[in-house]
């Protein structure tokens, strides 16, 4: 499909990933004319910003896009990158999606006028579905380091890196999985830890995700938490779906030769310097994992569920005298697994808070007709994922329909417009 310069549409969706496609599917079901703008191709983020061995950390059965749940042969498995791309491509072919690929939205003004790389369109309502992974976040101290560097979004495989040892900075999901990828390939890895928690893959006979799903955790709305803002910006627990799924135990990696460090605090051309908090970081990650097990145990007991007993985790390694410096001599590359920033600089509508985060309730902003979809913890844990984006998309489309009928939603309340 092509964009027609000067066209006007009831709804324009910016972003053709899982969030934008889910929204489009609900709009089609409502019979609403719309356009989906995608700067790359369907699944471009998964195709271009994930490494070769990447796989989901949630089981395939949690892939529940509207009218297109996973129906493959391995519901308890974890799709690898190319399978995820194929799943989204198949979804885009499963209904008559009005998709324009290779067209980037460059400016959104109140009104709504949308300038793009292929012309300008206007709309009555706009849904921003551009995802959270837009601008790689790399600390400024990287400028002092004279070693080849790349962001985790640029990493593909161990063979792409220069010879030598590798430093991975960050122990969120990407950092831990990339460190494991390099470790399994026989590279010497220096992993710089942070405050990210971990979670067990399996416990008492089930994937931990399955237990949490049974317990209703993934249906719990952000407004049910006492610390909603803190929850929204938490780092994800690290675990992996690789080879059928397993824990990521950094202590076990240390026994096998991976070098672990505390938080990175300073650097120059010759040396990295770390905080003396390695033990604290490892203990915190383990405590979170064991706390989740406590919650599962309590649920099993309360529901009188027959489930096999399982011994608890015991640390297999302790940092005796953690290094607080690392010479960069012999280091072939540094991988920054330090996350992303949103880039909403193209949006010229006053809906952002002091941090630049879009203010909304369940994706509905205070400016009538502007919505967001696919934000982490937009409403539930699954909002930015395959597991919960369908519910958010349905909610947003219901509000779109209501506004077209003369009902405006502001801060969670609605009023009828005469």
From TrEMBL:
Record keyword Amino-acid biosynthesis present: no
Keywords noted in UniProt: Oxidoreductase
Organism (species): Kribbella sindirgiensis
GO molecular function, one term: monooxygenase activity
Pfam families: Pyr_redox_3
Entry annotated with the keyword Nucleotide-binding: no
Name assigned to this protein: MSMEG_0569 family flavin-dependent oxidoreductase
């Amino acid at each position: 499909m092509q964009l027609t310069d000067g066209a006007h549409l009831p709804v324009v969706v910016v972003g053709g990933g899982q969030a934008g496609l889910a929204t489009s599917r609900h709009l089609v079901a409502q019979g609403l004319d719309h356009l989906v703008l995608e700067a790359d191709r369907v699944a471009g983020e998964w195709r271009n910003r994930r490494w070769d061995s990447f796989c989901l950390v949630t089981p395939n059965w949690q892939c529940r896009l509207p009218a297109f749940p996973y129906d493959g042969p391995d519901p308890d498995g974890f799709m690898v990158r190319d399978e995820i791309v194929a799943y989204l491509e198949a979804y885009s072919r499963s209904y008559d999606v009005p998709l324009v690929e290779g067209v980037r939205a460059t400016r959104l003004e109140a009104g709504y006028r949308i300038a793009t790389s292929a012309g300008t369109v206007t709309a009555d309502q706009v849904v921003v579905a551009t995802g959270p992974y837009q601008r790689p976040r790399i600390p400024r101290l990287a400028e002092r380091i004279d070693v080849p560097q790349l962001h985790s979004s640029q990493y593909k495989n161990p063979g792409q890196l220069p010879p030598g040892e590798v430093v991975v900075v960050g122990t969120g999901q990407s950092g831990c999985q990339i460190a494991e990828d390099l470790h399994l390939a026989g590279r010497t890895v220096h992993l710089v830890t942070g405050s990210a928690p971990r979670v067990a893959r399996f416990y008492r006979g089930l994937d931990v995700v399955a237990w949490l799903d049974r317990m209703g955790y993934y249906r719990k709305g952000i407004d049910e938490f006492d610390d909603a803002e803190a929850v929204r910006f938490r780092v994800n627990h690290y675990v992996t779906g690789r080879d059928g799924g397993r824990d990521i135990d950094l202590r076990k990696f240390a026994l096998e030769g991976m070098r672990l460090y505390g938080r990175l605090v300073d650097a120059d051309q010759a040396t990295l310097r770390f905080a003396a908090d390695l033990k604290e970081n490892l203990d915190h990650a383990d405590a979170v994992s064991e706390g989740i097990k406590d919650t599962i145990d309590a649920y099993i007991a309360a529901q009188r569920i027959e489930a096999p007993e399982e011994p608890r985790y015991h640390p297999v390694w302790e940092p005796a005298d953690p290094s607080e410096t690392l010479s960069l001599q012999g280091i072939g590359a540094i991988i920054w697994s330090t996350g992303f920033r949103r880039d909403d600089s193209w949006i010229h509508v006053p809906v952002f808070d002091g941090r630049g985060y879009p203010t909304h309730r369940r994706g509905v902003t205070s400016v009538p007709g502007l919505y967001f979809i696919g934000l982490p913890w937009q409403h539930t844990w699954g909002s930015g994922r395959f597991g919960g984006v369908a519910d958010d998309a349905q909610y947003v489309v219901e509000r779109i329909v209501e506004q077209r009928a003369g009902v405006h939603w502001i801060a969670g309340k609605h009023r009828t417009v005469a």
